[in-house]
Amino acid sequence: MTDNAVLQLRAERLSRATRPFLARGNRIRRCQRCLLPQRQCLCDTLKPAAARSRFCLVMFDTEPMKPSNTGRLIADVLPDTLAFQWSRTEPPQALIDLCASDEYQPMVVFPSSYAGSERQVLSAPPPGKPPLFIMLDGTWTEARKMFRKSPYLDALPVISVDLSRVSAYRLREAHADDQYCTAEVAIALLDLANDNVAAQALGDHFTLFRERYLAGKPHHPSAITANEAESV
Known about the structure:
Blueprint: H1 5-16, E1 54-59, H2 71-77, E2 82-85, H3 93-99, E3 105-109, E4 121-122, E5 131-137, H4 140-148, E6 158-159, H5 182-192, H6 196-215, H7 221-231
Parallel strand pairs: 1-2, 1-5, 3-5, 3-6, 4-6
Helix pairs in contact: 5-6
């Protein structure tokens, strides 16, 4: 079983918890790696891919612990993905150093409508250095808070992705048509950066995750069918 940065962050967050974290469906027995119900575990399907692009997930509080989180899928497919716990006042030094690195072109992934007039807004990664996509991973309310209250990211350009298709993500409801899950946005960014093989790999992984996540919900038709078959 391959470890990744999000799983490491999850373990660190759990070690600091003063009480158990109870997500929806907490009574279900889950694989402790992919966090899907054991019957729907997809760990044996993982296929890492190579990409010139790199991702950095800045995750809000308990986000790494949620079974519905899709940022973890990026780290499944792209092993060099980084993940940090968000802090307004005490950001990890490793994150600060990464933003100042000469090896990458860092940019914050967020809708352009939230960027101030003085902020550089990109519609595609610029040529030159490999792109470093910094993604603010949380609920929409949490992501907006991170965007507004992370002064150490203010000097970086914003890249905004226009997804013309309807979101296939139905694990948590979006609040507007232009709000998509973390994995969907990452797939679009990989396409923009011409990392097509990685985009396809992440797309396949996301599709399988979504199918198995929904199949593990008690009232989903496929879950009901499986339960009925077991009772025969």
